[in-house]
Amino acid sequence: MTRFAYTAAQQDALKLLASPAHHIMLFGGSRSGKSFVLCCALAARALRAPGSRHAVIRRHCRSCRNSIGNDTMPKVLQRRFNKARWNFNRTEGVFRFANNSEIWLIGLDEADRADKILGKEFATVYFNECSELEYSGVQTALTRLAQNVPTLVNKAFYDCNPPGRRHWTYRVFMEKLNPIDRTALVNPDDYAAMLINPAANRENLPDDYIENTLRSLPRRQRARFLEGQWLDENENSLWKMDMISPYRVTALPQLLRIVIGVDPAVTGNSGSDLTGIVAAARGTDGEYYILADRSMRGSPAQWAAEVSKLYHQFAADRVVAEVNNGGELVAALLNGTDRDLAFKAVRASRGKLVRAEPIAALYEKGIVHHAGNFPELEEEMCSYSPVNSGKSPDRMDALVWALTELSDGSSTARKFFFA
């Protein structure tokens, strides 16, 4: 077995984690080793303090178990702590060690299970991908950072790819402000943060990951996922993150109508635009819900198959697709792919701004809810400016078509269980 070694950046991170600060965040680009080193610190605390209890918290339980339970933590234990005895109960989502310490994996989307687990007390809580979490949920979880372990100081760890500067993570760790009322933190030195980027973890990455994958991203995504920059929001954009994040939901009401919005790409080669594919619904409460973003780059046959799959997954009422560039070919393609698909063609007879403004107004009223996180879609929305729109916002266009269609019409109420 290859001898384990931390990168230089991970060694610096471990020094910060051992500092007097009680709240420590590692932020930066994708695949920079943040989660790995935090899982190392979590496992070390569990092994050092028999009978101690620790938690990894993420927005979705499934993501937490797949990412941490099935991937990162087993790698950490095998490479860094290969003499430790442990087992992972996949049903419960808990790592148990021979010294009776535990590491629980928690998703805040499963309310009943989260309440049950958060009824316990922990010596460490680790908020993985904390840019996806609401501040209120974090505050609730922190009330359980209360296990009395003589050999440990209770701490909270955080990691994220930095979102916009309006997000609570920036307010708390960079500005040292309470994100609710913008007052100064009572103990600002208790909050420490460190930038750690993929370049510092190059030795553990595929040879072409940084150059070919991260450097080929759009400018704003490259700034976030390669350079670890906190994003400035476009003052001229129609959407702001504070029109989206506070109204995000994990549970849905009964839904009256479900529509799949499609903004087709004209071509299907590697340089083509995306085909925007977004599922949206109107609830019995009169409000609107974004259910999925399945936008993709592919051939007409490929994106038509994806539209059909999404249509049946959500038992949708209709597909609404722009036909300015494809005309009757778009209708023929979708109907040829799936004869059961109810299709409506729409033409962009008005400018993009005129179509988008009424939908942005719905967001301003707080009546559009994203059922989960859709980072690429939300990035596109918050980057779109009527002054300088730049590249065609394919995901956003699909969303606008779907929500425009949902502004009228009715159907029989039904319950949809969002997973």
Biggest pleated-sheet summary: 8 strands, mixed
The CATH C-level name of the largest domain is: Alpha Beta
Strand proportion, as a percent range, falls in 15-25%
Query: CATH superfamily assignment of the largest domain?
Result: P-loop containing nucleotide triphosphate hydrolases
User: How many distinct domains?
Assistant: 2
If you compute it from the alpha carbons, what radius of gyration comes out, rounded to the nearest whole angstrom?
A: 23 Å
Please estimate the helix content: 25-40%
Order of helices and strands, N to C?
Answer: HEHEHEEEHEHEHEHHEEEHEHEHEHHE
Shape: elongated
Stretches where pLDDT falls below 50 for ≥5 residues? 409-419
Task: Give the averaged pLDDT, no decimals.
Answer: 87
CATH topology of the largest domain: Rossmann fold
Distance between the termini: 40 Å
Strand order of the largest sheet: 3-4-5-2-6-7-1-8
Number of alpha- plus pi-helical segments: 13
Structural class: alpha/beta
CATH second-level architecture of the largest domain: 3-Layer(aba) Sandwich
Number of strands: 15
Question: Outline of this structure?
Answer:
The chain is an alpha/beta fold and 419 residues long. Helix content is 33%, strand content 19%.
